[in-house]
Design brief:
It contains 20 helices and two strands. The model has no long low-confidence stretch (mean pLDDT 90). The protein has a two-stranded antiparallel sheet with strand order 1-2. The chain is globular, with a radius of gyration of 23 Å. It is mostly helical.
Length: 451
Amino acid sequence: MLRSRLWEPSGIGRSPGVLVIVGVATLLVYGLLRVLWPAVGSPAGTAMALLGLIAVLTWGREIRGSGPLWLLLLSVAVQVLSWVLGYFHHPEWVSSNPEVDRLAKLFIFIAVAWWLGGSTRNTMLVWGLAVLGYLVASFVAGGLDEWREGLEGVRTGFGIRNKQHGSMLFGVALLGLVIFARRIMTHDARCIPWRCVAWVLALGICVVGIAIGQTRAVWLALAVSLPVAVLIVLLWARSRGMGQRMLRPILGGVGVGLVLVVLGGVFFGGTLSERLETESGVVVEVLQGDLQNVPYSSVGIRIHTWVAAGEWIAERPLVGWGGEGRSLVIDHTAWLPDNIKERFGHLHNFFLEVWVAYGVLGLGVIAALALWIGRGTWLAWRAGVMPNDMALFGAAFFVYWMIVNQFESYNSFWTGVYMHNLIVGGLVTHIWRWQLESGRRVFAWPTRRSP
């Protein structure tokens, strides 16, 4: 009964029963406790990843030749190549080993996807536990005092690494709560009162958390990704002649969004406007092309370090400087002030960090992974294997993730790795199920001709 109602058996591959129990248990613990109780959640994630990779390679005969496994191997090769070439070019600046985990950790989703077993129910359970764990953690890690200070206008990070990472997690949670609202609040097309109350409470916490977290990149990412989601729904409804039927729920959602914006303006208007206006002078300097006179403010620091990164990229654009590339930019760019070198060790832009470290080859691996997931999501959705709301969430999350990682290196830190792997794992598990059910691949070259 528990197995059938709570956790569905795998539809993408079978592995020994004991291994499945341990793998699923560690996945559930990882999803719930990675933020809330890192001392338990982190080792659970490590065990889940190792056992999952072993299981895929041993029992995943039909999927171990798929794109993610080859891209994982390619990511390791690119990192080793960059390290070897760096050893001969600048041995004093390379680490003692290739540090292949820098990119490889972004492929933990392979294990997540395996244990999810192609199941939408399993995926929603793990994602739901992740949201629950983080909402509780935001009160436990930082404490109620931090929430109180945030409501008084002090920028807060909820005790999660730094002030940007907490806001990023709230942004992902809000995106999921909005897109999966109907799934969360209803059962058999009927609203469940306690679910509605829980949804409103969780949404309210996320909105307030995003406001007092005062992370402009998160505001921008949500301001783009949510309208993109609405546009996708409108285009989908129009293509199926369902415009009138979808108009009411869409208008309802937009209305709720406007109410939240108005309430945010009423309660946090001063804080929000001050945060937005703080860097207006920097933006003007950038638009005028006067980068040398950009002050070393929050945005200014990013601009200067990005310019410095560009100088290093120009010297080794293809293979980069190795895993320590981002630190080299900060520590060995002569014109960067000493106080910046002491305070920062990364570039606040994940894609620039990959480019500096592993060159165009490293960026190519990331781009190929995104392309495979994007096309696979499309194909799985068209075949009816991936639900509408999950495909919509995947598209909106991609937009959100691309934007926030332009202003902070989330995928270089555990918070981003955790979020990336849980969500990508949920998408990939459906893509694998589609592959097995259809007998097709996401990309197949050369195209097979019918006899």
